[in-house]
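Render this sequence as a predicted structure.
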Amino acid sequence: MSSEALKSQKSFSFFPALLISAVIIILWLIPVLVISLRGEGWGSAPWGVFSIIALLATIIAPVAYGWQTKDTTGAVLIGVLPFLLTITIPRIFFGISAQDTNYLVRSALSIVALCSIGGLEGYFAAKREKRAFIIAAALAGLWAIVFLSGIN
């Protein structure tokens, strides 16, 4: 390995990517926890604002992080982890189960698609080229469309 490759390998740290992912996860989980503890519906209070901020952060963070740091691994983690963990862990923890097999398959495909798109967003943004950034921005738009298409 060249000295430059070793230097870039040593300087890589998962900490910034995991910290950003944790912040996004917390933004997603605040409304869920408050509503679960209060036993009320969503309402329009500040909890809806947390959800909107979390949604925007989930879409924008992989692109912004990848573009700023050129860290493809971290950008992919930010694109995959927050959404994956905030969708699956509450379902397991609160015992939300599938109504039927069709629902389970559609949910799994949606989660896999959104996580894949988010990871690809970060990957292309980390290349820091104009064409790759356009692809990352298009994937961010596609992520929003796929997410909104899954809302009943």
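Summary. The chain has one domain: 14-149. The two ends are 52 Å apart (CA to CA).
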